[in-house]
Amino acid sequence: MPYLLVAPIVVVLAAILGYPIYYLVRISLQKYDLFALVAHHGTYIGLGNFRSVLHDQVFWHTLLRTVVFTAVNVGLTMVGGTLIALLLVRVSTWVRLLLTVGLVLVWSMPPVVAVQVWSWMTNSQNGVLNYILTRLHLGDFFQHNWYETTFSQYAMVTSLIVWGALPFVVITVYAALSQVPHELVEAAQIDGARAWRVFKDVTLPVLTPVLLILTSLSIIWDFGVFTQPYLLIGPGQQTSSNYLMSVYLYVEGFGKTDFGRGAAISILMLAIVAVLSVFYVRQMLRVGEET
Amino acid sequence: MSRRRAGRFGWNAVGLVLFGLMVFPVFWMLSTSLKKNDQIYSFNPVWFPRHPTLTHFHDVVHRPYFWTDVKNSVIVVVATVAIALALSFFAAVALAKFRFSGRKLFVVLVIGIQMLPQAGLIIPLYVVLAKRGQVNTLTGLILVYLTFALPFCVWTLRGFVLGIPKDLEEAAMVDGSTRLGAFLRILLPLVAPGLVATSVFAFITSWNEYIFASTLLHDGSKQTVTVFLALLSGGNRFVDWGAIMAASTLIAVPVVIFFLLVQRRIAFGLTAGSVKG
User: CB of A39 within 8 Å of any CB in chain B?
Assistant: First the structure.
């Protein structure tokens, strides 16, 4: 009986996902260019694509850039999200309600829409960001171009991604905070414990499992991010000096129509993400199956 | 006591500033979309539109392909959600109600697939679809969206099916109904809110999707709304921000409405069990 219920979805997934993954491995071992795409088959070259990718400086630089990018984005999201969740506990009810509505509104923004709003706000000609920064006397940002250097480009991408990722973290952590035993916090306060001690010894242990799951989810998401950097920096502005992993394999595969090489990069990237996911999947299995 | 009050006042102030910062981009999108061009491009920003106008909305919906792309998005999204729900509902019931060998492997796959970065699969999916002549067709895009929608729906629905007390189901069986009868009469109505929530969330994910839509669909007449929006800013030297913000608003509105309806039900699926809501 259960097999009958599961069978259809297994068959469909095997066809639309299993088969392409088999194909991914096959292409990665072939020279698969535009001609191969038209002819529907490439030439077997063994591990040639992997060798070429792993000997390419660009791959290693991209990997390092992606790791740093992920660390910064996840760090900002988690620390910021936790602080805002703690703030939510301290404000009056009406402020909390207002903030929650704001967070859910931000959460619901489609990424492509958010990218367009960011392009508009950070635009060098009439961008409101340059105006505000100049008016706040933070320097002369008149017609400042935020997309000139890789660092500045990623400052913009990071602000966009953290903005979009905060609501999920804040709302989840806030829900977890309601599990913190009230009596314990009060007892600690009466004993004269400082705010930081109360947080570290009473609140944090309760939050830890949630924070771990959120962190691992954020790492997986940010490591594989594509739409925001690709569109905000601009499809034409992607070069080896500012690739992230997803963009790199996309440009190698589609931009340079070297699908074999792109497939090799995909496999390396998927392998890294698979390793990163182990913790999350195990955690989900443990807690998910108990309930 | 007064010190405590002062503290709360301070936190409220911080909260309000934060609220302003968070929602400013959304406000700026709406505000820009309603302004006349001279206010949009003025040297000193005009914060609130003076004499709000719907010109940009009017302009955008009359651009070539706007309605075609809306229609394409609706077709793709509705087909994806319908197929995904039909297939995953039964699998979700199997996961929630039965123990069987291979079950754990299935669960690991269902969770694991959701973690795969989309870009990592785009090359093989493109090549396989090209082989079958399904590039530049909506069918091809629906198949691609199913690879992500199916695992998500199975896992989320499993949670909703689990939430139904076993006694109810057993009570129906004592009444003499068959297992299937009990299942349909009792389970389906109870799980209906879960079905709605899951489908709305799958709807949003597919509606928002960009990378596959822009890679697989070449013709303007076959694109989806996200590709339409991304293409609005390219090409010309003069960027029509009024039109782009109007289109952004139009594309975001259905998502925001749907999201508000189901956010509370779905948000915790991703961290299921780690927070007891």
Answer: no
DSSP letters spanning A4-38 = HHHHHHHHHHIIIIIHHHHHHHHHHTEE--HHHHH
Each residue's pLDDT tens digit, B219-247 = 888 999 999 999 998 766 678 999 999 99
State if pTM tops 0.90.
Answer: yes
**A270 contact partners, CB below 8 Å, separation of at least 6:** B116, B117, B120, B121
Token pair recorded at residue A82: 């936790």
CA gap B129, B146 in Å, rounded: 14
* Alpha carbon distances (Å) from A28 to A18, A226, B133: 16, 21, 21
The shortest CB-CB distance from B18 to any of A99, A113, A226 is to A99
pLDDT tens across A16-28, in order? Answer: 999 999 999 999 9
Q: How many angstroms separate the CA of residue B49 from the nearest CA in chain A?
A: 15
Q: Is A266 on the interface with B (CB under 8 A)?
A: yes
- ipTM for the assembly: 0.92
**A110 vs B207: CB contact, 8 Å cut-off?**
yes
Rounded Cα distance between B48 and B30, Å, is 10
CA atoms within 13 A on the CB side of A276: 23
* Whole-angstrom distance, CA of residue A283 vs CA of residue A271: 19
